[in-house]
Amino acid sequence: MNKQNKEIKLEDLGYSDFFKNNQLSVEDASLTPARIIAEHRGLYVLKNETSELSAKITGKMMFAASAREDYPAVGDWVLVRILDEKQALICEILPRKTVLKRKSAGKSEAQIIASNIGMAFIVQAPGRDYSLNRFERYFALAESSNIKPTIVLNKTDLISEEDLEYKISEIKDRFKNINLYLTSTVSGKGIAELKKDIKKGLTYCFLGSSGVGKSSIINALVGENLIKTEEISSHSNRGKHVTTHRQLFILENGGLLIDTPGMREIGLLDSNIGIKSVFSEIQDLSKKCKYSDCTHMHEPGCAVLGAVSTGELEKEKYDNYMRLVKENDFNTMTKLEKREKDRKFGKFIKTTKKQLKKYKN
Q1: The whole model's pTM is what?
Q2: Which of 46, 112, 138, 214 has its CA 20 to 30 A from that of 263?
Q3: Domain spanning 10-93: which superfamily?
Q4: Which residues of 76-87 are buried (b: 16+ CB within 10 A; e: fewer)?
């Protein structure tokens, strides 16, 4: 029997006291818990102690949903009614312990990437879209939900030792207390070390752009080619976007891994806590600002701007901080607030045009 389908305990799937206690508050005792391990356009794949089941949500849940966050996501624990050996009906989502979410592209609502995760592996590869700023964006996303971020620098076989040492140095200089794994699925470098640190019953998520090798790393960790991957282009050094949905895999040692599609846009939403945590250095400096409501943009006596001018604070890090703060503030505004802001801006433009016309006359 494939180790993905063998009988296991719910605890092996990450079912802790947190979920048990929430299940006890549900009146219908006939419902049983299962974890969502994959989603395919409204059809969910669940796993419990004995089997994998395909399932849909009830009409009642669909009717009550007011946002995408009200629908199940990979990693969720749900209460189901078993219909037969292969099918079930999802009746309720148990409260999420952690939830990794981003702003939906082109919309103001949140999209859940995965839930009930303990650690997020942020994967980048040299020559792809490697960026320290991008790392900080992912960190803010993770830490906003109390998920520990960890860096995986993959495809290290594609660069020279000198270039690799430089990247390691700049990562460690920018991020003082972050774990860093150096991996290559071609040479096998770092895979054993990564696997050793993945613990039984804990859930890990792999995040990163298309082509950085997330799925290849999971295949190497699982020991089987469970996820389809494609070779990178020889002239662009870019991989195709192969993973099209989120899916949870179980390692032989019991670790739980969630693969995610490559994401071009990582829009921040409700990530203020994460931003403060990632940029704690700036938060400490802000306590020394002359004004308590300092925006760190132009105020006299701003300790943050002062640190930038003296080189104590890296200019690139400051610029990225301001960029993420502004983006998060805008995306977190309610639709009504955005409409009011747009109305005021439109009024400002109209008034300015009148004044210009009057000035010309």
Answers
A1: 0.82
A2: 46
A3: Nucleic acid-binding proteins (2.40.50.140)
A4: bbbbbebeeeee
